[in-house]
Specification:
The structure is a homodimer.
Chain A (H helix, E strand, L loop, with lengths): L9 H11 L3 E5 L2 E4 H17 L7 E5 L4 H12 L3 E5 L5 H11 L3 E4 L4 H10 L5 E4 L2 H9 L13 E6 L9 E5 H14 L8 E3 L6 H13 L3 E3 L5 H11 L3 E4 L1 H9 L13 E4 L6 H10 L4 E7 L6 E5 L19 E2 L4 E5 L12 E6 L6 E2 L3 H7 L5 E9 L5 E6 L4 E3 L2 E3 L1 H9 L4 E11 L3 E10 L7 H9 L10 E4 L14 H13 L4
Parallel strand pairs in A: 1-10, 3-4, 3-5, 5-6, 9-10, 9-11, 11-12, 12-13, 24-25
Antiparallel strand pairs in A: 1-2, 7-8, 8-18, 13-14, 14-15, 16-17, 17-19, 19-20, 21-22, 23-24
Helix pairs in contact in A: 1-2, 1-8, 2-3, 2-6, 4-5, 7-8, 9-10, 10-11
Amino acid sequence: MYPDSYPGLTLALARAADRRGEAPALIDGETVITWHAYRDRVARLAGALAGMGVQAGDRVAVLSPNTHRLLESLFAALWAGGVAVPLNHRLAAPELAAQANDCTPVVLVVDPAFRSVAETLRARVPSLRHIIVADDNYERLLTDAAPIPDQGARGDDTAFIIYTGGTTGRAKGVMLTHANLWANTANALAAVPLDGDSTHLHVAPLFHVAAIARAVSATVLGTTQVLLAKFDPAAVLAAIQQHRVVIVLLVPTMLRVVADLPGFHDYDTASLRMIAYGASPIDETLLRRLIKLFPHVALFQAYGMTELSPTATQLGPEHHVFDGPNAGRLRSAGRAAMLAEVRVVDDADVEQPTGAVGEIVVRGPTVMKGYWNQPEVTAHTLRGGWMHTGDLGYLDADGFLFLVDRKNDMIISGGENVHTTEVENAVASHPAVADCAVIGIPDPRWGQVVHAVIVPRPGETPDLAAIQAHCRALIAGYKIPRSLELRTAPLPLSGANKVLKSKLREEWAARAVSPSR
Amino acid sequence: MYPDSYPGLTLALARAADRRGEAPALIDGETVITWHAYRDRVARLAGALAGMGVQAGDRVAVLSPNTHRLLESLFAALWAGGVAVPLNHRLAAPELAAQANDCTPVVLVVDPAFRSVAETLRARVPSLRHIIVADDNYERLLTDAAPIPDQGARGDDTAFIIYTGGTTGRAKGVMLTHANLWANTANALAAVPLDGDSTHLHVAPLFHVAAIARAVSATVLGTTQVLLAKFDPAAVLAAIQQHRVVIVLLVPTMLRVVADLPGFHDYDTASLRMIAYGASPIDETLLRRLIKLFPHVALFQAYGMTELSPTATQLGPEHHVFDGPNAGRLRSAGRAAMLAEVRVVDDADVEQPTGAVGEIVVRGPTVMKGYWNQPEVTAHTLRGGWMHTGDLGYLDADGFLFLVDRKNDMIISGGENVHTTEVENAVASHPAVADCAVIGIPDPRWGQVVHAVIVPRPGETPDLAAIQAHCRALIAGYKIPRSLELRTAPLPLSGANKVLKSKLREEWAARAVSPSR
């Protein structure tokens, strides 16, 4: 009986309003929205959306930093029976127009900061019938609209379309169902026992599935959610202090900046019990500092991707240690979540033995419904019932997953596989290097050779010979960079804070064909 | 993608073996089985079952008190791709034969205590090709068998057929899928944060879904499970002390006996953190005693039934209180579990307003696949996508469910509905009454009238006039019993410890047609 038996995610909102009605649901600057008010505002906005023609399955796009109106808009889309499309506000207008023309939303809710982008979208996206600017207009709309009952979307229905940052190729609209997010919530609850008093801080942007999934879990638990519109280390610490935040999701890059803040000790972070992080493993130096700065805080890593709602593997607090039987897992991405099956396969989808590198594939109820309007890519990605992540890695004997590369980023040089992460670790350990990325560039003899893009530390200009000499002690000869370029600008990052290697390859190619640039 | 995306429950066993391998999984008297050994024994028994012809979807019946071999057999049936059928060993041989001939198992695993019943079944159940006696023969079988890989049953497949105790009518084989039990596990995890160190005591019989569901949750978490073959209050307390038990599932009747044990204070129960109970609400007197006896223990009530895997509503520790804003819920069955939708409807399936009594219906991923071989009863029970529980109750304004009766037990007297629970509470409060049940008996004038079956306290013989006088102060006139019978034997109970009113009605009818008996 179960295919359509999962309820819609809006049930969680309705329950939280019933059970924790006058407790704060959303705190956004000076604005505090109770669970009662949150449900009422969502039901009113859904009424307004219905009045604008939004019907079951219609898309409602939202372009906004983290605000209470962003979360209200996402849930209102679901309440109206529609599909919420949280757009990445870091993208340029043409990129957003391409995504909007792919999923053809009826309505766009836009933060006033992106009003000009919205005008571009109005001109370029014929499906858009209404644009709601999330300022006083939005409030007037809510006042005027009549609340409607939950329109009854259920587990099987698409809840979100989220465009993947996509380190390679055309952006894809990942369809996640209500049931996908329920399953991810179950995985989270099994790994991290939390209750309704575990106040959550949203600072990672809510157009990412990781933050959306946290918002869903918080709604299921009925916990207060504090919203920060942008990342600022002092604001993060101030919010933790002011609102007695219990759990926060960050990426290691953000964690480093927080730890580096000169005034760190001026803030009271005693309420914090868990830092969840993703996107990349944490390095030992940073971890040691975090343990000193937050001695009472558990660290929790999740690995996954949009297509997995998003969590596939989890590294729990018990493995964030340097000694004892649980040590030695810090460079791993942890072990499979409760409902996820994780395997490593070769190009013929044959399961690989322990320790052998291959593509990571995942099966389970958190696997997306598919890519919007891309049935062939969907079928290919989900072939054999497994989601093919495009990430390369291996499993150790205890089931810990170690990532070695993006499949598309792997370099094949003279028939040898070169995993760029390994080379990057070697290059980055040179004292003159602040940051680096490694790509493969075409070579008539070797097929590809290793090329390093290096951001030097201030005042340093490391040369190829120095880098090569440094690497020689660390990695095999065929892995050592054959060429390098220095750049002062930071490495280009995807919305998920992964280095956009496709961009680096494009830049290299552009220079290669027009050397004068 | 999700209909077949849920894994089989055996994944939980394999994971627990990978992650907690040398920790004790099962403790049964002097026998301690580690998770490694548990998986190995299950894989071997599955190999033996396969050798006996068990194929995907085939039924394997198990007739046993709580032993490690019972749990091994259930999981081995799943590991072999089959369906586990835990039989109620309190039933008589003809009842068991009827159930077995309904679901036609290929193999029966039987505890040596039920060897003679097994011989009857061998003679009467043609589908049975093999009977495995769970003694040394079982161990030899495991030694001789080659372990087989998990045969890959998945979420949609039936995992268990469990015959409902059935307070009325023919027993029904409830089909629960692997996904049903995963959903119930998610509901449990959301309500009760537990971890892998929360040692569990099985004393409620493992042919009930409530205990099976706990065994599944314990397997997911990798917690040690201590097994007691029968209920004995001293043995319960001794097991808690010896094995540092953290959680135990009991019914209120058992709790009362434990609390009454003269030597209670000789046992160290400091490890216990939670008592989960079901089958009926707990009365205030007992609760006050439990709070005094177990000051450090949280109490947790679940309401549900086999068809719901089993939990529909939960009453958490925060509502087991006498004062403050959370008081006043103790007579309720709590609120809907995370993934369960609970409504009260009339006979036309129209949702009833707050406070109005009607049939309790439930929707969600824990709702059974159906009744084995009974498509019409299934369709009727699941009409409109809702499981019709047959229980009568109402929801209060805060979503707490109050049970008032079994639908089939409700008495209609002179057009008035009489909920027997209310009458029973009134009668039971008479000082001469030890226990009582109320049924409707035919009456030419009123359709039905109220009849009380009373077990008096030792030395007491309450008469009708006394009971009526007592009730007059408590309930409306039409609810007062018009007749009564005294019995010295305890009231007949179903396997789920509910009074078998159908039996009382039958007994009354037998006396009515043959007054000489």
